[in-house]
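User: what does the whole thing look like in 3D?
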Amino acid sequence: MIMRLAISFVSAALVLAALAAQPAIAADTPNPVADAKAFQKFFTNKFPQLKPEDFANGPYSMNEDLHRQWEEKEQFPPYEFALETGKQMFATPFKNGKTYGDCFPNQGIGIRQDYPYFDEREGKVITLELALNRCREANGELPFSYVKDEMASLTAYMAFTSRGKPFDIKIPDDPRALEAYQKGKEYFYTRRGQLNFSCATCHVQEPGERIRAEILAPALGILNAMPIYRSEWSGMGTISRRFTTCNSQIRGVPLSPQDEEYRDLEYYLSYVSNGLPISGPGARP
Amino acid sequence: MTSTIRVRATSNGDITEVQALVQHPMDSGFVKDAKGEIIPPHFIQQLTFEYDGKAVFVADWGAAVSKDPYVKFSFKGAKKGDDLKIGWVDNKGATDTTTAKIQ
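Assistant: Here's the predicted 3D structure for the full assembly of 388 residues, as structure tokens:
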């Protein structure tokens, strides 16, 4: 009896000592820098044969056959028409004489890697798609649909001019920015829909595996290739389209494009891919 | 209006390899739009590649070919710098043609 008491006392003391040794930061305080490092390490450990920039090419880096098909396809990429349309739209002035370029730093060329960013004045995440529609509205034009066609052409052109530039998402010293990041992270790991899938279920746990006939892309670098021409869609789709269709595919109810939660998700997902090059526009099966 | 046809023709001595991408909706006539109304059939019926006045590749297409179709083939007897003429006709009578230099 005494012996047992002594043992439990010792183990209690050990637990206390372990608790005291914990660092001062509580486990639930968001730490984006550590998150991004751990996130990237997870993928590089899982796929040790890949170079970091390979992740921006999604499923093509996971399967040899697919890679060969893709190399051939890239000689004559299916997003070429959208790219050309986007370039023309970008150069064509609005009715008031201004252009898209006037709404963006560096006339909108080579800036894809800086989006989404946290606007401290408004206290929210601004994505490239949102910024484009705001630019239209500020110049007296009607906004475009967020999911495809014109919007995808514009983002295709903007991504193309930024190819090779590493994602450079910043989290300013503002508790609201950290909150948006944390909300995006929570969205990413929360299960939903009838199939009870989270984003991570497919894109963290199973990249490189098949879901029916498709090969799943890794979450790391998944936004670097956006917008994409999907053969399944017979057309271009934006990040908004990818998020909403993902939600439908897991038999959930998608949010409206550019909903706050989607923008926070894009913020989180882009941040953890910091350092990986923009490869968009992309083509996916 | 820019051309609906993109072509790349490269010669490696004897054989000329041709790749082409055509922008076209290729509606089959079996699909409904968001309002539940049938989208009328609208597809390319014939695609022709001509070299030196002779057809080197003719495709008779129908509703089963997918949107923005892609074609790849090769033929013998052409030289670098020669012209390759490409044209299509769809079921509504619309056409487009373009000429590419063999590289």
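In plain terms: Residues 5-101 of chain B form a domain with the Immunoglobulin-like fold (CATH 2.60.40.10). The longest strand of chain B covers residues 5-12.
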